[in-house]
Backbone:
C-alpha cells in the first residue's frame, strides 16, 4: 500500500517527514479532511484575520494530490 | 523483595496488609504495547506500576482505540472491574515501558475484603479513575488538541517522572483519538510556546510551567480532586514540597 504525506500550512508550512501508509488516494483524501476538521478550531483567529488553513496530500514522489482548505470571509462588504 | 515501593498504594500499605500481600507480589518489566487485560475479559491479575505507565483504552470494531484514563505509580490497574467482579470495560495496555508489581487478583480481593483500610483506599482510587475518565470524555468533546496534548504529557510525566517520553506522534495520536498530522500540528504549537521539543519517536518536556500554561483546565481540575483524596504520584509529592519550601 502506498505512503502519503500530509503537510499543513497556516502562514508557515509544517512538513510531514513520516507519512501514513493507506489503502488508496481516497483514504488519503478522507484523512486530510479529518486533519482539517481536527486542527481548524485552533485556527479561528487566523481565519478571522482573513488567513487560510490548508492540508496538502502528496504521494511518495512528492507530487501534490489534494488540497483541502478553509477560508473565512465576509460577503456583505 | 524491595523494602520501599515506588508505587504509592504499596508504599502506603499498613504492616498487616503488606505482610499479607508482599509474598505474592512479582516484579515485572512491562514492554510498550503489551496488553495486560483485554477489553471485556476478566481481571485475573492486577498491576501496581512503578516506572511503567498503563493506558485504559476503549477499542472499536474498526480497529481504532482511544485512551480514557491512565494508571501509573499512584495506583493499580483494573480496579473497578476487579471490585465489581465484572469483565474489564477497557483494554489495559502498556503505553510507557517500565517496572510494575503483579499480583493475583484473588489474593488482592481476599485482602481487600479483610481490611477496611485497604477497601477504602481501593474505593477512593476507583472513584479517582472514574473521575479521570469523565474529565477526559468531556475534555475530548470540547477542547482543542494542543491543550489536550499538553494535559496528557503532564499526566504521563506525573506518573513516570520522565522528561523524555518515548512515544511516536502516531502513538500519541492513537491515544488521543486524532490523526497523526493533527498531533504534529499541536506539538508544533507547544514547541512554539517553549514547552516541548520533539523528534521522531521522542517528546522532551522543556518546561512544565509552560506546559501547564498551555494545558486546558482539565489538568488542574483533576489534580485537585486526586490530591484531596491523597492520591498523588512521587513527582507531585516533590513538586508540592518544592512549592511549599521557604526560599533561603
Residues:
Amino acid at each position: 500500500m502506498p505512503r502519503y504525506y500530509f503537510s499543513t500550512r497556516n502562514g508557515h508550512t509544517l512538513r510531514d517527514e513520516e507519512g501514513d501508509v493507506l489503502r488508496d488516494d481516497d483514504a488519503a483524501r478522507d484523512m486530510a479532511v479529518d486533519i482539517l476538521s481536527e486542527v481548524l478550531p485552533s485556527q479561528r483567529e487566523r481565519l478571522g484575520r482573513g488567513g487560510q488553513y490548508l492540508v496538502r496530500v502528496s504521494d511518495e514522489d512528492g507530487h501534490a494530490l489534494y488540497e483541502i482548505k478553509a477560508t473565512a470571509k465576509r460577503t456583505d462588504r | 523483595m524491595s523494602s520501599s515501593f515506588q508505587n504509592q498504594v504499596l508504599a502506603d500499605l499498613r504492616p498487616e496488609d503488606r505482610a499479607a500481600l508482599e509474598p505474592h507480589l512479582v516484579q515485572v518489566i512491562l514492554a510498550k504495547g503489551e496488553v495486560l487485560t483485554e477489553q471485556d475479559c476478566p481481571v485475573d491479575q492486577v498491576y501496581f506500576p512503578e516506572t511503567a505507565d498503563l493506558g485504559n483504552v476503549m477499542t472499536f470494531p474498526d480497529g481504532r482505540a482511544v485512551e480514557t484514563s491512565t494508571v501509573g505509580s499512584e495506583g493499580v490497574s483494573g480496579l473497578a472491574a476487579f471490585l465489581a467482579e465484572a469483565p474489564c470495560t477497557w483494554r489495559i495496555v502498556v503505553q510507557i515501558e517500565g517496572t510494575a508489581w503483579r499480583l493475583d487478583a484473588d489474593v488482592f480481593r481476599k485482602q481487600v475484603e479483610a481490611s477496611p483500610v485497604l477497601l477504602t483506599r481501593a474505593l477512593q482510587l476507583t472513584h479517582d479513575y472514574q473521575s479521570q475518565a469523565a474529565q477526559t470524555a468531556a475534555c475530548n468533546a470540547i477542547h482543542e488538541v494542543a491543550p489536550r496534548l499538553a494535559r496528557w504529557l503532564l499526566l504521563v510525566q506525573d506518573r513516570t517522572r520522565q522528561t523524555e517520553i518515548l512515544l511516536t506522534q502516531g502513538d500519541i495520536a492513537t491515544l488521543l483519538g486524532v490523526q497523526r498530522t493533527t498531533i504534529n500540528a499541536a506539538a508544533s504549537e507547544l514547541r512554539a510556546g517553549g514547552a516541548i521539543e520533539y523528534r521522531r519517536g521522542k517528546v522532551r518536556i522543556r518546561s512544565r510551567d509552560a506546559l501547564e500554561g498551555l494545558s486546558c483546565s482539565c489538568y488542574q481540575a483533576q489534580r485537585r480532586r486526586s490530591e484531596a483524596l491523597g492520591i498523588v504520584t512521587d513527582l507531585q509529592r516533590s513538586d508540592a514540597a518544592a512549592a511549599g519550601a521557604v526560599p533561603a
In short: Residues 55 and 68 of chain A are 5 Å apart (CA to CA). Helices of chain A lie at 25-39, 44-48. Chain A has a mean pLDDT of 93. Strands of chain A lie at 3-9, 13-14, 20-21, 52-58, 64-71.
